[in-house]
């Protein structure tokens, strides 16, 4: 017989009711021991026992494992868990300063909360001291603005001017820090870009230019051929840097980050530079749902982790698009998910370069839903795939068709990289399958359509040549059968170019009938 559990306090709280529900579920399952539940759920017996202990809300993962081990309804219990987590949250007092900035960049006055970038700040300060022009570059969402405002500016002495692209560079000895320089390369900004480049090339002030990675080379060229700017790359944080960025601000606010939350948050953000804004946002919402002075995994999950807020931002951008833009967005996000493999990055070659497509991509990048670096575009975090209901519905449609489209995309890219090598065209059954798929309304890029058209043309050309050869043979037989009288006699049988079909036969002088003319069946 399993050991009896300690009775729950009859306090009527949401936490006690949740624990009681788990205990009732276990009892209805035949009251298996926690050792048996651990074998089924792949969590320790202690963890599962604590889940029904009533002292704190278990994590969602532990709850669902407990429920499944007892043959319960996981969907019902997930809804119940979220409702309980929302009821248990503690609203932050209005006068309390939050230790995280959410999706907003850290500013100069937030330097005391800006942690995890010490080595990068040291590198940047040294570059500024040694070079007249420094380019700070990295993917969207990597934290370039926070690095400049909360990391660099407090470390500088002397006059500093912080501005954005398009403003006139001031004269004098002040260091000028220019953020978002990619704006200089937007359509219609030719004059601003020329004026900015002229100021850099005429010995103007010392500058630090922050620019998204896909515009880094063009931004460096603004300084002119005589100057090679120093370049500082803003990449992903290490695991240790992430731990510092999570725990140190909380400690400043006299709060404690529980270990399960810290482990989960680091695992979600590590190696993903575009996830940093969503990490900050999730931590801010977790702090607002803190339990006393503790930031918990339950509060983090109740806040939606990374996926929930990102999905809301994606839906807001999608709602603001017109019908053509929504069609582009649907195709874009379907490309960003590999069938059976989760989120993936797409190169510029896979996307149309029309103004409409570029505008749609830019909106999702600005909303931090997508991350763009020098060569690729990817979701800010792979949890978006499951958290955005609209995207989940798109991905459920025509799984086999998406695989076919993915194969076409890869083949077209390979063909272009190899200078349109004919040996790389689709043929036979593979081409027939792709053509059958493409007969339905599909969105193909210009490159994909060109590849499919070239494959189709190459496949039909041998059949056309075979038909022409048969026609030539028939004409020769008929000409020979016609015999004399200046009738056209077929010349050498060859496969002429299609645009020279009128030259299939040539007139010739009368020729003697063949010796075996009497043997011919003239019908």
Question: How would you explain this protein's 3D organization?
Answer:
49% of the residues lie in helices and 8% in strands. It has 21 helices and 12 strands. The chain is α/β, with parallel strands linked by helices. A hairpin with a 3-residue loop joins strand 11 (370-372) and strand 12 (376-379). It has helices at 14-28, 34-41, 45-51, 60-69, 74-88, 118-130, 144-152, 190-201, 216-221, 239-252, 259-269, 276-288, 297-302, 307-320, 323-335, 355-366, 384-387, 389-396, 399-417, 428-438, 446-482, and strands at 133-138, 160-164, 175-179, 207-212, 230-233, 256-257, 294-295, 337-338, 342-343, 346-347, 370-372, 376-379.
Integer average pLDDT: 80
Widest sheet: strand ordering: 2-3-4-1-5
Q: Strand share of the residues? A: 5-15%
Gap between N and C termini: 102 Å
Largest sheet: 5 strands, parallel
Number of helices, where a helix is a run of at least 4 consecutive DSSP H or I residues? 21
Number of strands: 12
Helix content: 40-55%
Q: What is the CA-atom radius of gyration, in angstroms? A: 34 Å
Helix vs. strand class: alpha/beta
Name the features:
single chain; 523 residues; alpha/beta; 5-stranded parallel β-sheet; 3-stranded antiparallel β-sheet; 21 helices; 12 strands; disordered C terminus
List the helices and strands and how they pair.
Blueprint (H helix, E strand, L loop, with lengths): L13 H15 L5 H8 L3 H7 L8 H10 L4 H15 L29 H13 L2 E6 L5 H9 L7 E5 L10 E5 L10 H12 L5 E6 L3 H6 L8 E4 L5 H14 L3 E2 L1 H11 L6 H13 L5 E2 L1 H6 L4 H14 L2 H13 L1 E2 L3 E2 L2 E2 L7 H12 L3 E3 L3 E4 L4 H4 L1 H8 L2 H19 L10 H11 L7 H37 L41
Parallel strand pairs: 1-4, 1-5, 2-3, 3-4, 6-7
Antiparallel strand pairs: 8-9, 10-12, 11-12
């Amino acid at each position: 017989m399993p050991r009896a559990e300690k009775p729950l306090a009859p306090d009527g709280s949401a936490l006690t009711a949740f624990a009681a529900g788990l205990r009732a579920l276990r009892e209805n399952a035949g009251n298996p021991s926690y050792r048996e539940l651990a074998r089924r759920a792949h969590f320790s017996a202690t963890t599962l026992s604590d889940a029904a202990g009533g002292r704190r809300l278990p994590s969602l993962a532990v709850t669902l494992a407990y429920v499944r081990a007892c043959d319960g309804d996981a969907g019902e219990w997930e809804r119940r868990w979220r409702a309980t987590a929302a009821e248990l949250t503690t609203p932050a007092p209005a006068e309390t300063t939050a230790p995280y900035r959410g999706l907003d960049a850290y500013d100069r006055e937030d330097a005391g909360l800006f942690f995890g970038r010490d080595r990068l700040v040291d590198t940047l300060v040294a570059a500024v001291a040694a070079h007249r022009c420094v380019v700070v570059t990295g993917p969207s969402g990597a934290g370039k603005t926070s690095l400049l405002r909360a990391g660099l500016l407090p470390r500088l002495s002397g006059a500093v001017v912080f501005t954005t692209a398009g403003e006139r560079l001031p004269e004098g000895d002040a260091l000028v820090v220019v953020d978002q320089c990619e704006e200089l390369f937007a359509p219609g900004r030719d004059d601003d870009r020329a004026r900015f480049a002229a100021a850099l090339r005429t010995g103007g002030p010392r500058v630090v230019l922050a620019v998204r990675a896909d515009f880094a080379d063009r931004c460096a060229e603004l300084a002119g051929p005589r100057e090679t700017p120093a370049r500082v790359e803003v990449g992903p944080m290490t695991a240790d840097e992430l731990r510092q960025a999570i725990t140190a601000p909380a400690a400043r606010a006299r709060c404690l980050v529980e270990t399960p939350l810290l482990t989960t948050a680091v695992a979600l953000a590590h190696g993903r530079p575009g996830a940093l804004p969503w990490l900050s946002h999730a931590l801010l919402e977790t702090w607002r749902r803190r339990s006393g002075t503790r930031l918990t995994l339950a509060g983090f999950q109740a806040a939606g982790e990374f996926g929930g807020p990102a999905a809301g931002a994606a839906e807001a951008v999608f709602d603001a698009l017109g019908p053509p833009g929504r069609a582009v967005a649907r195709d874009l996000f379907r490309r960003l998910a590999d069938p059976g493999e989760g989120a993936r990055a797409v190169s510029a070659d896979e996307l149309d370069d029309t103004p409409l497509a570029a505008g749609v991509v830019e909106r999702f990048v600005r909303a931090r839903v997508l991350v763009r670096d020098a060569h690729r575009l990817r979701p800010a975090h792979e949890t978006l795939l499951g958290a955005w209901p609209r995207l989940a519905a798109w991905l459920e449609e025509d799984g086999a068709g998406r695989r076919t489209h993915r194969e076409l995309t890869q083949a077209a890219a390979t063909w272009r990289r190899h200078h349109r090598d004919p040996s790389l065209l689709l043929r036979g059954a593979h081409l027939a399958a792709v053509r059958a798929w493409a007969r339905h309304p599909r969105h193909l890029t210009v490159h994909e359509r060109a590849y499919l058209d070239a494959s189709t043309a190459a496949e039909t050309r041998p059949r056309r040549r075979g038909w022409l050869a048969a026609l030539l043979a028939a004409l020769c037989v008929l000409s020979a059968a016609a015999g004399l009288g200046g009738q056209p006699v077929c010349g050498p049988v060859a496969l002429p170019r299609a645009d020279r079909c009128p030259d299939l036969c040539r007139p010739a002088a009368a020729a003697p009938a063949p010796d075996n003319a009497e043997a011919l069946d003239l019908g």
